[in-house]
Structure formats: structure tokens, C-alpha cells
Amino acid sequence: MIKRSEERFKKHLPKSRDVTLIVLKGHLLIEEEVNELLDVLLKNPRELYAADLRFYQKICLLKALFPSKDLEEREWTAIEKLNSIRNKLAHKLEPPKIEALIKDFLKILEDPDISESEYEKESTDKRLKRNIAFLCGILSGLKEGIKAVKTPNKALQPTAKGGG
């Protein structure tokens, strides 16, 4: 349920302005949505767990399963970019050019018709949180849409008529 995803987002995305923590926790929230999306899509997702796929491989699998109209290329690119930032932060205390990578991530999702200087009036941590929330929301919406299609609505099913 989208409400559950929203509650997890609010609970786990840090209130702090620590960009590293926002990226790491945000990535975990997106990874959770990716895993749940795969669970909903696949008939036997447990078989996939044995493969111990990396996050990037899961994204490639999802891209192969979804038509481009369901998720735009920019959104996949943003998820991949966030994964790259997360990897750099997870393996180095002070990765070089991290600010530039974060700026690139933000540019992918922010409206190109609004000047960068206008966006920069808002703090990087707020922009990061907003864009991570956007990606989580899209993945959660896809997941819920697939669940709705897979679950037959009894109200729409014809009732059995007696006699015959």
C-alpha cells in the first residue's frame, strides 16, 4: 500500500541536513521499493534471491521488464546516479567530486525550464529529499498499480447464476 511506503519514508529518511546520511538512507528506501516491485512482478521471486543480485542488476532487470512509458529514462538514470553516489559514499570517507555528482543527480529530475540559480536558493539536503521522495513515490505507484491489476476485483466479476 502506498501509505506504508510513505510511512517508511517519513520514518527512515533523516530529518538532519547530513547529505551523506540522506543519500545512504534514501538509497535504502529506493532499494526496498525495487525489491518489493520485483516481488510483485515475478511469479517466484525467491528464486531471484539466490542470485544475490546487486542493486544495479536489479535495476537492469526492472528496465527490461517495463515498457519505457511506465518509467521515463530520466528516472532510471536518476536511480542509477543515486546508486553511484551511494557506492562512492559507502567506500570512501571523502569521495572526490561528490558535490558535482549530487548536483548531476538533482539536475536529472529537476525542471530544466527553471534556472539552476533558482534551485540553488533551496538547500541541497531539501532538494535531495524531494527527489528521493519522487523516485520512491514512482516505484511505489508502479508496485501498487501492478498489485491492482493482478488482484481481481470481485465487484467487477460476474456472479454465478443458478439453473442451467
Describe this structure in words.
The protein has helices spanning 2-12, 19-41, 46-49, 55-65, 73-91, 98-109, 116-119, 124-150. With 164 residues, it is an all-alpha fold. The chain has one domain (2-152).
State the share of residues found in helices, binned by percent. Answer: 55-70%
Total beta strands = 0
Summarize the helix and strand pattern as letters. HHHHHHHH
Main pleated sheet = none
Q: Estimate the mean pLDDT confidence.
A: 87
As for the number of domains, it is 1
Unreliable stretches (pLDDT < 50, length at least 5) are none
What is the radius of gyration?
Answer: 19 Å
Please count the helical segments. Answer: 8
Strand-pairing-aware structural class? mainly alpha
Q: Give the distance, in angstroms, between the N- and C-terminal Cα atoms.
A: 41 Å
Q: Looking at the structure, what is the overall shape?
A: globular
The fraction of residues in strands falls at under 5%
Layout of SSEs?
Layout: H1 2-12, H2 19-41, H3 46-49, H4 55-65, H5 73-91, H6 98-109, H7 116-119, H8 124-150
Helix pairs in contact: 1-2, 1-8, 2-4, 2-5, 2-8, 4-5, 5-6, 6-8
Task: Write a compact overview of the structure shown.
The chain is an all-alpha fold. It has helices spanning 2-12, 19-41, 46-49, 55-65, 73-91, 98-109, 116-119, 124-150.
Task: Pick out its properties.
single chain, globular, mainly alpha, 164 residues
